[in-house]
Amino acid sequence: MKMHSPNTQTLANEFTAQPVVQYTARVTQQSASQLEIELNGLRFPAKRAVSCLAQPIAEDTVLVAETGGQHYVLAILERQDTQEVVLSTPADLLIASKGTVSVVATNDLNLHAQNVVNTSAKVLHTQASEGTLSIKTLTFLGNTVRAEIEKARVFAGTWDGVFDRLSQRCKQAIKLVEGLDMVRSGQSDQQVQGMYRVHAKDTVVTADELVKMDARQIQLG
């Protein structure tokens, strides 16, 4: 296949270099898509350059480039110390680095999204002296969970669990049930090294075939 070189004249018609003049100006008004700057007592409309991530506000001293009759705000040079700095872009923003990216805040660090916050990493570490997690609905999917907790307290209206095997080991276990305590199992085996005591106002023990009691001594009544 024969390759054709681009027409130099066609490229020249698509983009023509324009002389650029730079100067400092003062922002008088700002909106979502338009700025107004003041230079030597005259006011001009201006656009924020794509490379200027900081959003200009009124009374900012900015660096302006004029080309082809259009003014572009390139950077913010000065601002009052009490005013916050907002980094904004008209489209999606991607920060890419071949090394480490660090975000350091002297006071607080807030993350807010109207829809979804996604976090993906091979290893995730979170460390804090205190923490609060408030989620209306939480779904956790994983293979293994290991927790080392000195003290835990759980308050829930309903607690449902489905397990293939449930194993618990503790030095002491105390359970207080105000209402019904029901156990349904295929087989039940309880072994106590010391005394096993059952006390109730009424006790009923039934079996379909056999009831067996075996001990050195059995006392009834």
Question: What is the strand arrangement across the widest sheet?
Answer: 1-2-3-5-4
Please count the beta strands (DSSP E, at least 2 residues each).
Answer: 5
What's the CATH class label of the domain at 17-78? Answer: Mainly Beta
CATH topology of the domain at 17-78: OB fold (Dihydrolipoamide Acetyltransferase, E2P)
Question: How is the main sheet built?
Answer: 5 strands, mixed, barrel
Which spans have pLDDT < 50 for at least 5 consecutive residues? none
The H/E string reads HEEEEE
Rounded to an integer in angstroms, the radius of gyration calculated over CA atoms is 37 Å
**What is the overall number of helices?**
1
What does the average pLDDT come to?
89
Please tell me about this protein's structure.
The chain is mainly beta and 221 residues long. It has a domain at 17-78: Beta Barrel (OB fold (Dihydrolipoamide Acetyltransferase, E2P)). It is built from 1 helix and 5 strands, in the order αβββββ. The protein has a 5-stranded mixed barrel with strand order 1-2-3-5-4. A hairpin with a 2-residue loop joins β2 and β3. The protein starts with 7 loop residues before the first helix and ends in a 143-residue tail after the last strand.
Q: Any key phrases for this structure?
A:
221 residues; mainly beta; OB fold (Dihydrolipoamide Acetyltransferase, E2P); five-stranded mixed β-barrel
Please outline what is shown here.
The chain is 3% helix and 17% strand. The protein has 221 residues and is mainly β.
